[in-house]
Design goal:
Number of helices of chain A: 3
CATH class of chain B: Mainly Alpha
CATH topology of chain B: Sodium/glucose cotransporter
CATH superfamily of chain B: Sodium/glucose cotransporter
Radius of gyration of chain B: 24 Å
Number of helices of chain B: 27
Strand content of chain B: under 5%
Largest sheet of chain B: 3 strands, antiparallel
Distance between the termini of chain B: 25 Å
Oligomer: heterodimer
Helix content of chain A: 55-70%
Number of domains of chain A: 1
Structural class of chain B: mainly alpha
Radius of gyration of chain A: 18 Å
Largest sheet of chain A: none
Order of helices and strands of chain A: HHH
Distance between the termini of chain A: 27 Å
Order of helices and strands of chain B: HHHHHHHHHHHHHHEHHHHHHEEHHHHHHH
Shape of chain A: elongated
């Protein structure tokens, strides 16, 4: 397998992990919205309400920065990161 | 000046922010000294619009890459701010808190949908499109799949989606201008339009970028300051986001106590068009999971297909910067979005809690009608009360408000000085203007670059290309304003439709263009046109009394459109020849950040 194929393999792997986490926070927890809202969560808000207002949103922000860092590492590992003069 | 300007950005915008806060303080002092509410409103809107126009003029340019992609040198964090302003429209600023106020949990799907989409943008698209080096989204489609028909189909989808979106934004600028400047809506729409064009005409993407950063600063101050102020004034908590649990619970209690009385259809006839009462619980989960998830999903996929957002990431200096910039965009959006439900909570409680001095439910009609702010907003056709049961006191089901009023009127209701209302008007104006600018530019650029330059006259000189782009900008703006003046659909509704149109036609052709090498021209064309037509057909069908299926409504028709698009694209691609070697090589090159971009610096 060429260097580029390996790079793409890893990139795809990262994409699947990222999308899996995204799925949990954007869809997964809302499948159980009614049940989870009966339970008190952070700062005293009901759990589903809190996720909808703050929790999921914050998770997305962190997820994107995490993803960007991981992807940079992968690019560096295979020598595909950009040079400053490009 | 140029390199110098980029290095000095933090300083420039630091001074600007200080100057704006200074302006707010001067206005506050002027109010104490007797300046009228009207004059303060005019001063806020006029001052901020003047600053944006000034930035637009200073950013004027005659170079193609400055006009189309701001010279690809916008730093990560600033591009994040510009994207946030580009993204947060009149719908986010003015209408979203209103939607949550009336409909509670069901509408909070918009919060999740309009943020979660950025994960898709960052992981599936933005860095690859940046590597591609295109000027517009159809530029990517046209080069990746090849051929004028593919390029043109992308322009069609882009135009349908963006135009639907832009009419709503011009409507919002018109509403605010008409309230703040006290002129009729039909004229105010054009005042709004001229302000929008001042920012983008001369400088194109460069002008829009630097005004959007300025607009973000205004809109975020204008949104957060009242939320914190009201929360503190009500004694609800020093930091509302972490401290409103008791208030949320109290609303639930009051809702139980009052009950949601259903009004008779005959009674509702007397309520002015566009106003609504509170009919759904505030924080209880009252939507079926699919209703919530389908709306969130449609908004997420729509986010990743909207060209005016995608093209913001063409302006970063590198692929790496594009990825990080998506994170910063979402961070800046998060600041406002996480505050919207807090504002809805505070606004609702201050109106309905009889224990608070501002509460009106349970008061007599004569008392409510004597309140200043009620008279003002009633006159603006945004508030209405009617004694349906004839008992003389106001009940929850007898109070109606326009969606826009929740954000615009709450400071006044909570008893904040008028200077805050002026600030909020300026913030709403900034939000709507920045999005309208991005959208009009996206349409005009697609038509001037992709249709005129790439298809009609590939030999055109830069000067001529930019002239065409500017003329189109004005034409599209006026067309948008004319339709906005007709007020066909509310702000929130039109914006949601725009997302559905975009995802119907563009989501899979864009994503598969990067992630599936086998995708070819025939498949992409079938996907774009088939998806758009299927989505539009579903919308018309449901609007004209069709029952719909799978719980897909007129707000989520993009789910149907994009499913058709995906199926068509895969089937047609597999039935026709695979893309040639050169195209496959191009996809390989797009997938790695290093190396030259696919399209040259000036193409």
């Amino acid at each position: 397998m060429s260097n580029q194929q390996k790079h793409w393999e890893k990139t795809r792997g990262l994409l699947f992990i990222t999308l899996a986490i995204w799925f949990v926070f954007s869809i997964g927890i809302f499948l159980f919205g009614a049940e989870m809202n009966e339970v008190t969560g952070p700062f005293g808000y009901p759990w589903t309400y809190w996720f909808t207002c703050q929790g999921s949103l914050g998770a997305f922000v962190i997820l994107i920065f995490w993803f960007a860092n991981r992807q940079e590492k992968i690019d560096e590992e295979f020598g595909f990161s950009e040079r400053e003069d490009e | 000046m140029k390199g110098n300007f980029i290095d000095n950005l933090p300083k420039v915008y630091g001074i600007y922010t200080g100057g704006f806060i200074g302006f707010i303080i001067i206005m506050a002092i002027a109010e104490q000294m007797g300046m009228t509410a009207k004059a303060i409103g005019i001063a806020f809107v006029a001052f901020t619009v003047f600053i944006y126009a000034l930035i637009g003029w200073l950013s004027r340019t005659a170079q193609a890459d400055a006009y189309y992609v701001a010279g690809r040198q916008v730093p990560t964090v600033f591009n994040g701010m510009a994207t946030a302003a580009d993204w947060m429209s009149g719908a986010s600023f003015v209408a979203m808190a209103g939607g949550i106020y009336f409909k509670g949990y069901g509408y909070m799907a918009l919060l999740v949908g309009w943020t979660g989409g950025y994960v898709l943008v960052a992981s599936l698209l933005a860095p690859y499109l940046r590597k591609f080096g295109c000027y517009t989204v159809p530029d990517f489609i046209g080069t990746r799949y090849g051929g004028n028909l593919a390029r043109f189909s992308a322009v069609v989808v882009l135009t349908v989606a963006s135009f639907t979106y832009v009419t709503a934004q011009i409507n919002a600028t018109g509403t605010i201008a008409s309230v703040a400047l006290d002129i009729p809506f039909q004229y105010a729409v054009y005042v709004g339009l001229v302000s929008i064009l001042l920012c983008s005409m001369l400088g194109g993407m460069r002008g829009v970028t630097w005004t959007q950063v300025a607009q973000y600063i205004v809109l975020i101050i204008a949104y957060l300051l009242p939320v914190f102020w009201i929360s503190n004034k009500m004694g609800a908590g020093f930091f509302p986001h972490f401290m409103l649990a008791d208030e949320v619970a109290r609303i639930g209690e009051l809702e139980q106590q009052f009950g949601f009385v259903k009004n008779a259809a005959a009674d509702l006839k007397s309520v002015p068009k566009g106003l609504a009462g509170i009919t759904k619980a505030h924080s209880a989960v009252n939507a079926t999971p699919w209703a919530f998830i389908s709306l969130a999903l449609a908004m997420m996929m729509g986010t990743a297909s909207l060209p005016h957002v995608m093209m913001r990431y063409f302006t970063t200096p590198s692929v790496k910067a594009a990825r990080k910039s998506v994170g910063w965009s979402l961070f800046f959006i998060f600041l406002l979005y996480s505050s919207a439900p807090m504002l809805a909570t505070l606004s609702k409680l201050s109106l309905i809690d009889p224990n608070l001095p501002t509460g009106i439910i349970g008061k007599t009609f004569a008392e409510v009608e004597a309140i200043d702010w009620y008279q003002n907003w009633n006159q603006a056709n945004l508030m209405f009360i009617s004694d349906f049961n004839g008992n003389g006191t106001l009940e929850l089901n007898e109070f109606f408000m326009g969606g826009k009023a929740v954000v615009l009127a709450t400071p006044e209701i909570a008893g904040l000085p008028y200077v805050i209302s002026g600030l909020v008007a300026a913030g709403g104006m900034a939000a709507a203007m920045s999005t309208a600018d991005g959208l009009i530019l996206a349409i005009a650029n697609a038509i001037s670059h992709d249709v005129y330059y790439k298809i009609i006259d590939p030999k055109a000189e830069t000067a001529k290309r930019l002239l065409v782009a500017r003329v189109l900008l004005v034409i599209i703006g006026f067309a948008g304003a004319t339709i906005a003046a007709m007020e066909i659909q509310g702000i929130l509704g039109s914006v949601i439709w725009a997302f559905d149109f975009a995802m119907s036609g563009l989501f899979f052709p864009l994503v598969l263009g990067v992630w599936w090498k086998r995708a070819n021209r025939q498949g992409a064309i079938a996907g774009m046109l088939g998806g758009l037509i299927a989505g539009a057909w579903y919308l018309v069908w449901v609007r004209t009394g069709g029952s719909g299926f799978l719980g897909i409504t007129q707000l989520t028709f993009g789910i149907f459109g994009s499913a058709v698009s995906l199926v068509l694209m895969v089937i047609v691609s597999l039935m026709t020849a695979e893309p040639d070697k050169a195209t496959q090589k191009m996809v390989d090159d797009v997938r790695v950040p290093s190396g030259k971009s696919i399209l040259g610096k000036s193409h």
